[in-house]
UniProtKB/TrEMBL annotation:
Gene Ontology biological-process entries: methylation
Keywords: Methyltransferase, Transferase
Organism of derivation: Hominiventricola filiformis
GO molecular function, one term: methyltransferase activity
Protein name as catalogued: Class I SAM-dependent methyltransferase
Domain Methyltransferase: start-end pairs: 41-126
Annotated SUPFAM superfamilies: S-adenosyl-L-methionine-dependent methyltransferases
Length: 252
């Protein structure tokens, strides 16, 4: 089932606990640290465009890619309100295509965890390394960790009830496959005052840091750092989220 269909219209409502501005400050800092002060930046798995808008406000020329038409509809509404010249493309990030290269690619909010096969992660990284990143360009992505799925999310049920809608989020983590399955039940308020029920089934996969290192190496990208999220400290065994910073080597 396609992810984020019924959830798209209330996604921002239930994600308002995420400090996007702080996350954006961190991402901008990483970009500037390696000389990406301006120019084209691609966001894979851009969702409703919150981070895309933050980076556009910082002066970057943004492209956003997501496979959910419903999420992109929300992003386009934000674009209309902000007036930013953002290009949104409805594509599967496993097979994304651009007309040229960009200075950086970002993929955050655990979008890469939705890629369930190592070969597909490798394909994304390889495509960036050989086709769509400028020489010296950055690829920055985050990941929920094995620790987070195993110790925090796995077998947990999370529920929230608001006037505009409610959700029940049930998690099931399999340590052998490293797949976290979650069933999402939504009750979305209609103009009539009645609530519409939507059900979605999502899967995310944890990747060991060793696996990520191997995939980055195979792709042709250079691994710069794997940070404990929102710091410049190396990832720890109990890191819940990590940021992976890679670079396309300069042309020889």
């Amino acid at each position: 089932m396609e992810a984020y269909t019924g959830f798209a219209e209330v996604y921002d409502l239930f994600m308002d606990n995420i400090p996007y501005e702080e996350w954006g400050t961190y991402v901008k800092g990483l970009l500037k640290e390696y000389g990406v002060d301006e120019g084209l930046v691609l966001e894979l798995g851009c969702g409703t465009g919150t981070m895309t808008e933050i980076l556009a406000s910082a002066g970057y020329d943004m492209i956003g890619i997501d496979q959910s038409e419903e999420m992109l509809e929300e992003a386009l509404e934000k674009k209309q309100e902000s007036g930013h010249e953002i290009l949104y493309l409805c594509q599967d990030m496993r097979e994304f295509e651009l007309y040229g290269t960009v200075r950086a690619i970002i993929c955050i909010c655990d979008s890469m965890n939705y890629i369930l096969e190592e070969e597909e992660v490798l394909g994304i990284l390889t495509s960036a390394a050989h086709n769509y990143l400028d020489y010296g360009g950055l690829f920055i992505f985050d990941l929920n960790t094995e620790y987070k799925y195993r110790e925090i999310l796995g077998e947990q049920t999370i529920a929230e009830n608001r006037e505009e809608g409610s959700f029940i989020w049930e998690n099931y983590y399999d340590e052998e496959s490293m797949i976290n399955e979650y069933d999402l039940t939504l009750f979305v308020k209609e103009p009539s005052g009645l609530y519409r029920k939507e059900e979605e089934n999502h899967f995310q996969r944890a990747y060991s840091l060793e696996t990520i290192r191997e995939l980055v190496k195979k792709s042709g990208l250079k691994l710069l750092h794997i940070y404990d999220a929102f710091t410049h400290e190396p990832a720890r065994e109990d890191s819940e989220r990590v940021y992976v910073i890679c670079q396309r080597p300069e042309e020889k």
